[in-house]
Write a structure and sequence with these properties.
mainly beta, 137 residues, 1 helix, Thrombin, subunit H
């Protein structure tokens, strides 16, 4: 009998797909589609992280603008065992560093203080987080 092995990455990806599917995202929503990390060569080196977004110049994005990563989270009523709805939590502010026709690349400017926002799981921008153009430009 052959054993099936799951890597941590495949399990995380599966969980993210389930969570993202449960947020009822609309086709016109823009979101993080990929996260690319550079690995440092030394322990002191700060590695950049690129966040790829499914929106580009045709959607009004341009290089240098600020955007926000927002995580939609289901709100569950444990007393009555039912889903009450979703809430949106601002996770981070990012800056667009590259724009193509249909996609963009952004880098992290700052994570929002998790002591002042609802706990949204993993404390970083993740695949499936929604993108909103910031009001402060």
């Amino acid at each position: 009998m052959k054993r099936v092995r799951f890597t941590t990455a495949s399990l995380v990806a599966g969980i993210l797909l389930i969570l993202f599917a449960s947020t009822n995202a609309r086709a016109e929503d823009f979101y993080v589609t990929s996260v690319v990390r550079d690995f440092p060569l030394s322990g002191n080196e700060k590695s950049p992280v690129d966040y790829y977004i499914n929106a580009g110049s045709v959607n009004g994005l341009r290089k240098g603008i600020s955007i926000e990563a927002i995580r939609k989270m289901p709100i569950y009523d444990n007393m009555n065992s039912k889903l009450m709805g979703d809430t949106s939590v601002k996770i981070a502010r990012m800056k667009v560093i590259h724009v193509d026709k249909t996609y963009s690349v952004a880098r992290l400017v700052k994570m929002y203080d998790k002591t002042e926002t609802p706990l949204a799981g993993h404390y970083s921008v993740m695949i499936g987080d929604l993108i909103e153009v910031s009001e402060k430009q």
